[in-house]
Every structure is written in C-alpha cells, then in structure tokens.
Amino acid sequence: MNNIEELEKNIEKLKKNMNDIDNLKDKLDTSNSLFQKNLDNTEKMEKEINENFEKIDKELSSKIIEGNKEILDNFKLINKATKDELNKLNVKFNSLKKLNVSLLIINIVLTLIILFAILL
User: Taking the CA atoms of the chain, what radius of gyration do you get in angstroms?
Assistant: First the structure.
C-alpha cells in the first residue's frame, strides 16, 4: 500500500506541477502579449518621431529659404536706394562742376575787364 500512497502523492505533485506550468505558461503568454504591444507601440512612436522630424526639417528649410529671400529682397532695395542716391549726388556734382567752370569763366572775363580798365 505504501507504493500506492506514494504514487498518489506523486500524482498530486504532478498535477500541482502541471497546474503551476499552466499558470507560468499563462504568465508567459501575458508577458509576450505585453512585450509585443510595447514593441508595436515603440515602432509606432519611432515612425511618428521620424515623420515629425521630417515635417520639422521641411518647415525649417522653408522658413530659412523664406528668410534668405527676404534678406535678399532687402539688400536689393538698399542697393537700389543707394544707386538712386548716388545718381542724385552725381547730378548735383556735375551741376557744381558746370557752375565752377562758369564762375571761372566769369572770373577770367572780369579780370580781363579790370586789366583793360587799368590799361586804359
């Protein structure tokens, strides 16, 4: 009878071990499921992060291009205004040169008149 009792004990132990194995299998399945969900979420987040970086890169590039365009337009306006001012100054300078030549001629004529007046 001893053997039968031992056999029954072993059967009970075996049942308990099988139950423990089933519980562990369930826990492993749950862990695997959670791991797969985390992996899926990680891949999804990585994809979203990459898409966001691409969007940011495009927006930043477009803002830089837009800013550079504005700077170039401003330089063009400054350049045009400077040319216009230089042209105005050039016209004034040419007028002053003509006035200077006219005054020189008047000075020479007056000097000649004074010399003739002195000689007469």
Answer: 51
- The 8-class DSSP code of residue 48 comes to H
SS (H, E, C) 5-45: HHHHHHHHHHHHHHHHHHHHHHHHHHHHHHHHHHHHHHHHH
Q: Which of 51, 33, 55, 32 is nearest to 43 (CA)?
A: 51
How many Å is the maximal CA-CA distance in the chain?
Answer: 173
- Give the model's pLDDT for residue 3: 86
pLDDT of 1 higher than 70: no
Q: Cα(104)–Cα(113) distance, rounded to whole angstroms? A: 14
